[in-house]
Amino acid sequence: MTKQVKQLDRVIIRFAGDSGDGMQLTGDRFTQESAVFGNDLVTLPNFPAEIRAPQGTIPGVSSFQVHFADHDILTAGDAPDVLVAMNPAALKANVGDLPKGATIIVDTHDFTKRNLDKAGYDVNPLDLLGDSNDMLGDFNVQPVDLTGMTVEAVKEFGLTRKDAARAKNMFALGLLSWMYGRPTEGTEKFLSKKFAKNEPVRDANLTAFKTGWNYGETTEAFAVQYEIKPAALPSGTYRNITGNLALSYGLIAAGVRSGLPVFLGSYPITPASDILHELSKHKAFGVTTLQAEDEIAGVGAAIGASFAGHLGVTTTSGPGIALKGEAIGLAIMTELPLVVVNVQRGGPSTGLPTKTEQADLLQAMFGRNGEAPMPIVAPQSPGDCYTAAVEAARIAVTYRTPVMLLSDGYLANGSEPWRIPAFDELPEIDPAFATEPNHELTDADGTVTGTDFWPYLRNEETLARPWAIPGTAGLEHRIGGLEKGEGHGNISYDPANHDLMVRTRQAKVDRIAESLPPLEVDDPSGRAKVLVIGWGSTYGPIGAGCRRVRKAGYDVAQVHLRHLNPFPRDLGDILKRYDKVLVPEMNLGQLSTLLRAKYLVDAAGYNMVRGLPLKAAELADAIGALVAAAEGIEVNLHPAGTDMEAIS
After folding, report:
1. DSSP secondary-structure letter at 6?
2. How many of the other CB atoms lie within 10 Å of CB of 160?
3. What one-character-per-residue DSSP string does 452-521 give?
4. Other CB atoms closer than 10 Å to residue 588's CB: what's the count?
5. Tens of pLDDT along 534-586?
6. In angstroms, rounded to a whole number, what is the distance separating the alpha carbons of residues 182 and 176?
7. pTM for the model
8. Which runs of consecutive H residues, i.e. helices, occur in 280-317?
């Protein structure tokens, strides 16, 4: 049958079900095919916080949201246009996020009395469709027996009913792939490879996927097929990439660019473990990985590798940073290159291991005893994790210092199209190892009697000390953990020397600002009185919120920080140009605290700590209120005839 094809510029789809229903795989495959098709996209995987919540309960719901479009987008979207709900709990947990008119495709099979009770439903909402008590009346509900049709379609392969039902996610994927014109070849190849050793399961999944597609093609329940054309992206070779994968590739690229072997000492922790898994695959690029017995052993091994002339890396989340703190202080005192990756998660302590948060900025700034300054770099998107990792390594090697790389769970697990950079686009990273003595020995008369090596003689431009690989003839030296004398590095208990060392280490971090490019301020009209400043993964929601405000006819400026310690040199001047400054963060105001303290600016915070990314629409309202206050006008962010929801 011939069906209507409707053109759309963007769609937000959320797949939701029990954590055993394969929603992450379903969403990932839909995303990969959308990337191949050429759409711009942003994803938001959302896992249960518990390792294995009871089946059929709201805490056990797993979801995957994908926003894809024919134009540049910045976020995974505030509200899904389509919800695929595999059971009552998935419906109950997600229906509150849907706008009026959204489509709900619901698997009717699991709407049993037991599952309805687990989800907190007194009655089956599907039984009320169309009557006066319809609790889903604001939505376009499509009840489909996904499980039943899947089991019937794959019965020829001899699987148990339970195993056959597991292919229902592929039926759903096939149906949604038909609805939105997604390619199918990639998914078919993926399934054939993934289940190559189990032919019945392979054939069942392939059949379920094709049956879902054919159901959409032939049923009268879905009368419209939608088309979202490819986006016009800058020329280049693209791939879909998650933040953790991009960060891993960035570390490898930094190793190749610097000529240093990469050593990762790490202990598995959500949501950073995928970096360990990925780097372990790349021995061919000189990468060595050690899964240590605990967090402290992991960072200790990485510091030892740095001492030996490698690019030392350790990866963790906030709880691991707390454990590594003393060892990081050792690396600061010995002035060894070290990249410390913190993929932030909800906390404190174990907290919400699968949820995102930005609450470790002050920990990164001050979470060590004594005066122990440490550069901080933060990526702004999944693909930008690559660039941020290279930058963290550049600073660590050039300035001989540990660097904190602050990612978060949203960036780590989310994905976007990423243009693969050319190798020559990477910055220079020169370890400049010491190869000969650097200090002359003299007698009492000042006569030169020989030479030796001083490990704390400094580069005048960077204040970096020389990096000598142990075993280099004539360069034996002591770097120890106790305070040492300037230059020679021997143990010193002199109060004045301690003050000098403390100030020198701080001056070295401050010196990094001189190598940073000017900040890019997005102020299209040049008339804005309000500046929105952020860091890390708030880049997308802030950008989308500013777009909405500008679309409604008002002026607002945006600037985003990659370097949080030291701040860029021009930040203070930029802040002074605006009457109002708003700092959106997924914490209770950590960057705004730092800005207020350093620049004496009356920065206002917009703070949400929900374990989820900020919502662009809510943020736009906060920006609009500040614009109204700054300019003394009324602000209407919903002018007639403008689809503000499409601006994200």
Report:
1. E
2. 8
3. E--TB---TTT-PPP---TT-TT------SS-B-TBT--B---HHHHHHHHHHHHHHHHHGGGGSPPP--
4. 12
5. 999 999 999 999 999 999 999 999 999 999 999 999 999 999 999 999 999 99
6. 8
7. 0.95
8. 295-307
